[in-house]
Design a protein that fits this description.
42% of the residues are buried. The radius of gyration is 23 Å and the shape is globular. Strands 1, 2, 3, 7, 8, 9, 10, 11 and 13 form a 9-stranded antiparallel β-sheet that branches. The protein is 6% helix and 39% strand. The protein is built from 3 helices and 22 strands. β4 and β5 form a beta hairpin. It is mainly β.
Length: 371
């Protein structure tokens, strides 16, 4: 584990104006990956030992934490995060918490995967953040209860050792643990508040589940699809296009800035594995005056080589789900959608089945990662 940025100590008390004006952060190298703890993927905070001041579920909200300096409740300041009460020692002669005292929360990842980086965000927790944090992970199949996860026979792997963090900061940690995990245990030492938790990595789908599905969305995040690159991410991330479900608002899709040249925008995807694609769905939901005008789709079998167009440049309608059955199934590992000239789409679905070779590689990787 290597900390890609280190922030320690209190932030200044809030003095009015933009609460993010003095927020401490950094460009972390792993944040273009999937957030395995995204609530939209099905992640959840299933237990915590204490949530006196602020509920544990706030940790996984997809939007940045908000701060209202005037908002107080019966228990004190209402914070947009997970905040525990102040720990105390055993008595008047030992008023301070012991070194091993800490609070914890159990997080179920939205999809099993390899963790590449973690951000423990203490936004707006300026003097009430934890002194240090640590993060552990485990792989337990099925739908275990908190009691089952905390059983003595469950093996936990340390992803982030106990490390000092700063208040009102995005504390980022690169992770090097080449294993598949399903749950995290987030510890704050000894107490305090964390606004958001982000867990970036790569989905490791269960090949038995995919085989049972037969035909499925080969590029969906939950099935192991990935955005490799995009021409523009100005208004919203390209990864939104392979999130579960339909878009529910404009910024839940992918939208580019307005082009003033003669080019076009695009996204390049890597499928879960080599597969045969039989049908395509391009959705422009909630993109009304800013949807792409036209789109084309090209495929490639392998990490390099020429692209083959399988869906020619086709007119798109605003706020519409477009469905195309290909004349014959096409084999691919990578797909590129080009939109003309700019604008956006909300979702891309590519339905098909892994090839025999692709299915074998999926099963081998699943075994290798301990899934």
């Amino acid at each position: 584990m290597t900390a890609t940025a280190r922030f320690t100590g209190d932030a200044n008390p809030y003095g009015g104006g933009d609460p993010y004006a003095d927020y401490r952060t950094d460009d972390f190298p792993f944040t273009d990956l999937v957030d395995l703890a995204d609530r939209r993927l099905g992640a959840g905070v299933i237990a915590a030992n204490d949530e006196f001041f602020a509920e544990r579920e706030n940790l996984l909200k997809p939007e940045p934490a908000e701060f209202d300096p005037e908002r107080f409740g019966h228990k004190g300041k209402v914070m947009d995060g997970w905040e525990t009460r102040r720990r105390r020692g055993t008595g008047a002669d030992a008023p301070h918490p012991a070194d091993e005292d800490h609070d914890w929360a159990l997080v179920r990842l939205g999809a099993p995967g390899v963790v590449r980086g973690i951000v423990v965000d203490t936004a707006h927790f300026r003097g009430n953040y934890p002194q240090a944090v640590s993060v552990e992970a485990t792989c337990v199949p099925g739908s275990p209860s908190p009691e089952e996860l905390l059983a003595p026979d469950v093996k936990w792997t340390t992803l982030v050792p106990r490390t000092a963090v700063g208040g009102h900061a995005a504390n980022g940690f690169a992770v090097d643990a080449e294993r598949c995990f399903t749950h995290l245990r987030v510890n704050q030492h000894p107490d305090g508040g964390i606004a958001r938790l982000r867990v970036y990595g790569e989905v490791v789908p269960d090949p038995a589940w995919l085989a049972a599905l037969g035909t499925f969305d080969l590029v969906a995040l939950e099935n192991g699809g990935t955005v490799e690159d995009a021409s523009d991410r100005f208004y919203s991330p390209a990864t939104n296009t392979i999130q579960p479900g339909r878009s529910r608002k404009m910024d839940d899709g992918w939208e580019t800035r307005r082009r003033r040249d003669r080019g076009n925008d695009w996204i390049r995807y890597r499928l879960v594995e080599q597969a045969l694609i039989g049908a395509v769905e391009i959705d422009t939901a909630y993109l009304k005056g800013n949807s792409a005008g036209w789109a084309s789709l090209s495929v490639r079998d392998g990490g390099s080589g020429d692209w083959t167009e399988v869906l020619p440049r086709t007119r798109l309608q605003p706020d519409t789900d477009h469905r195309f059955v290909l004349p014959e199934a096409v084999r691919a590992t990578h797909v590129r959608i080009d939109i003309f000239p700019d604008g956006g789409i909300s979702r891309l679905r590519l339905f098909g089945t892994p090839t025999e070779e692709g299915a074998a590689r999926l099963a081998a990787r699943h075994r290798e990662l301990g899934g």
